[in-house]
Amino acid sequence: MININFVPDDYVQSNESRRTNLIYLVLFAVVMTALGGSFTAIKIRQRACDANEKLVNARMAEIQETIKKFEELQTKRREMMKTALTTAELLEPVPRSILLASLTNNLPPGVSLLELNLIQKKPKQSVTVAPTSKYHAAQNNAQVQNIAPDNPEKLLETHINIGGMAPSDLQVAAYIEQLSNSSLLDNVALIESKEYKIDKNTFRQFKLTAMLRKNVHLTKEDVERIRRKAKDTVWNF
Q1: Sheet of 201-212: strands edge to edge?
Q2: Which terminus of the chain is less hemmed in, N or C, by CB atoms within 10 Å?
Q3: Which ranges constitute the DSSP H helices of 185-219?
Q4: Nearest CA to 154 among 90, 85, 87?
Q5: What one-character-per-residue DSSP string does 88-122 give?
Q6: 159 burial via Cβ count (<10 Å: 0-12, 13-18, 19+)
Q7: pLDDT digits (tens, 9 = 90+) for 56-83
Q8: CA pair distance 100, 97, nearest whole angstrom
């Protein structure tokens, strides 16, 4: 049986053209939607990156400010330490390291130090007799002016308490004699000496007192000599 198509060819071509155009429009809409979604996602990610960058920059600025403050504190600390050391050198005519080296250098064989305390005190005021004349009053005023210098720290007396162990009283006596002959110390005295046993070995535990001589001024050669001698002993300065 013969099929006869009564639809004109122009109408068929027009329908096919409309379907093709519709497909193209749908595909174009899909592509544009995909592009719009991608653009939106890129913008969102860009904004998120910008926000993170701002947070990182703010954090870096805070860290830089903290580092700057820390460096300023370190600089102030170094200045304060320098000032403290300078003040200590002015107040202490004999550095403590040199004094300790001198005490160690004078140790007899077998004697060891266990305790060392330095105490600065004001000197005891001597009892003065009331002046009986204008001459005596003027003389007392002159003595007070000579005793009281402009720097009150120079009036302080440095008392030294020394504790240690020795094999016998002979070494203790030898140590006292050597300290008495030292140019740094004065009024060396024995406070206590008692027997002390360690693993069936008998030792003498002693305590001494001494005073740092007033108006002691060590030259650079004296300091170097004391330090060189200290290198041959236990301490290394």
Answers
A1: 112-121, 157-166, 201-212, 185-198
A2: N
A3: none
A4: 90
A5: HHHH-SS-HHHHHHHHHHTPPTT-EEEEEEEEEEP
A6: middle
A7: 999 999 999 999 998 998 888 888 877 7
A8: 5
